[in-house]
Amino acid sequence: MMPLKKSGIDIMKEITSADNPQYKLFVKLLSGKKYRQREGSYLAEGLNGLDIPAEQVRAYLLPLSRKEQVSRWQLPENKVILLADSLFAGLSADPASQGLILWLPVKAAAWPPEWQPAAGGLYLAVEAIQDPGNLGTMIRTAEAAGARALFCSAGTVDLYHPKTIKAAASSLNRLPVITETNLTELIAVMKKHGIPSFAAAPLNALPYTAADYSGGALFLIGNEGNGLSPAVLAAAKRVAIPMSGGVESLNAAVSAAVLLF
């Protein structure tokens, strides 16, 4: 990795070999959860990353052929790493890439013991969601709908899976997302603070349009194949999305969007 010089000051770095240790780390961050956990960081692609404050960014990765974008996007040069175009393509998941990948630190995702919900607030919780695209879409949708936070149970797909990051866009850096959550405990906390919990369920459920959300709401969405667990269903009010024809269920992310909005 070679620093580019300007008046004797290191301003940008350049990687031209796949054997570079820094590049090998980037490849590992895309390849598995264990590397992201060990390094405490992940890669996110796309211009929506320009919304993230520079102080929260470890580095901006660009292909050498788009070096002029550094000044156009007003990137801090001491955080820029220019990659040979072939190396950048090896990290990109988008054939029509916009030419920007961010190296970001993972956020603290533990449920703070002192946490309390906002009065009348909107929240989303998911149980054992397996599709990273679904999880990312729900993160983005929850922010757009005005939710205060999203909670994930144990067994939910990795929050920093590349497909989750892509679907969530920059919402992951703004919306609090809490992992490894005990959902029945969460429901109890919400109840204590006057916020009802609504479990999406197809049977023995009230049409979601008939429920009262004036005191706020925690919506719970279950696993794509199995739905919510019996313990969660027993602890929350059941609501259903009425459907026409022979359709029995909706995609988990679509269901979340309907309920949240």
Question: How is the secondary structure organized here?
Answer:
Blueprint lengths: L1 E5 L2 E7 L5 H11 L1 H7 L1 E5 L13 E5 L5 H4 L7 E4 L1 H7 L9 E5 L16 E5 L5 H14 L3 E5 L8 H7 L8 E5 L1 H10 L4 E4 L5 E2 L9 E5 L8 H6 L1 E4 L11 H9 L1
Parallel strand pairs: 2-5, 4-5, 7-8, 7-12, 8-9, 10-12, 10-13, 11-13
Antiparallel strand pairs: 1-2, 3-6, 4-6
Helix pairs in contact: 1-2, 5-6, 5-9
Describe the protein in words.
By secondary structure, the protein is α/β, with parallel strands linked by helices. Helices cover 29% and strands 23% of the residues. It is built from 9 helices and 13 strands. Helix 1 crosses helix 2, helix 5 runs parallel beside helix 6 and helix 5 runs parallel beside helix 9. The chain is elongated and about 60 Å long. The N terminus is likely disordered.
